[in-house]
Amino acid sequence: MAAGHVTGAGIAIFNEGKVVYLKAYGFRDKERNLPLTPDSIMTAASLTKSAFATVVMQLVHEHLIDLDKPVYKYLPKPLPQYENYKDLAGDERYKLITMRMLLSHTAGFANWRWLTDANKLRIYFTPGTRFAYSGEGIDLAQLIAETVTHKSINQLMRARLFQPLHMTRSSMSFDKRFANNQATRYDEHEKSLGPEHREKADAAGSMQTTLRDYSRLVQAVLSGSFLGPDERNEMLSPQIWITSKHEFPSLENEPTKENNAIHLSYGLGWGLYLTKYGEVFFKEGHDEGWRNYVACFDQPKTGLLIMTNSSNGEDIYSGLLENLIGDTFTPLEWERFKPSANLHVDHP
Questions:
Q1: pLDDT 10s per residue in the chain (348 long)?
Q2: In angstroms, rounded to a whole number, what is the distance separating the alpha carbons of residues 108 and 91?
Q3: Where are the domains of the chain?
Q4: Helix 211-223 crosses helix 47-61 at what angle (to 10 degrees)?
């Protein structure tokens, strides 16, 4: 952390499908000398997407959602008649989009419309034909889940995830009950950006949680104790092979063979790659002042969860993954992570 200028970091290690190590380091508020704890509220950022996808797979199990049914058929009016989707009027390709495509990031959207020159929602390629990471796609999946359950994303996540897994310090937006132990976020210069108060619940990235709580979700997915075997297998099975050189910018499609050896692909809400120890499922969380990562070897049931309140957090991932769980396979270049400098530990 000192070498990477990371203000605070929480680490959970999983062995045999159980949490065997859970500890926080550094500060949740450096100016007030307050330590980060396993129960400090942090923003999950895009780790929210994996949590949401896990809930969607419950809805699949209950036959409330069919992964391959065009999602517009779940809505009471045409998709372009919704304010957020009016830009799709005239493009009938929206009728091809399924929940499988939304959760595997193959629906054809940019990551966010405001990141494009047009600043409008567009379908950039035939849905289902290639990978392009998209928060927009997850937001559409949220609309579908809320429609079929008649519940808000707050209600849905609380009833189907937070309560069953005893994630007692998790919410989809700011909750003043947790304000007494909330982490402040820090930029690349370790300057405080202040605590974050997410007012709008968003399946793509608003989840407020803790190291302890999110480790309960990872443990449930890793151990197979939460979803039925069919739904878990589907969620963690390759839906699309990834051949692009980088994950971001999401519409960049420069081809590469660099990740062929690890069979880089995407499941439903989780990235996947193959190693000599079996399949790994992983997810990044990246937002201003927050950098989070989880990677789990499915067969030996070993994994690592990293949550940081620092924009430098990604710079220590590779050193932690390599030294704590022996993961030297993570596609650093594809995810645009830097190899950790001066962080190697010689094992006895």
A1: 999 999 999 999 999 999 999 999 999 999 999 999 999 999 999 999 999 999 999 999 999 999 999 999 999 999 999 999 999 999 999 999 999 999 999 999 999 999 998 899 999 999 999 999 999 999 999 999 999 999 999 999 999 999 999 999 999 999 999 999 999 999 999 999 999 999 999 999 999 999 999 999 999 999 999 999 999 999 999 999 999 999 999 999 999 999 999 999 999 999 999 999 999 999 999 999 999 999 999 999 999 999 999 999 999 999 999 999 999 999 999 999 988 865 555 543
A2: 12
A3: 8-335
A4: 40
Rounded to two decimals, the pTM is 0.97
Q: Does 3.40.640.10 match the CATH number of domain 8-335?
A: no
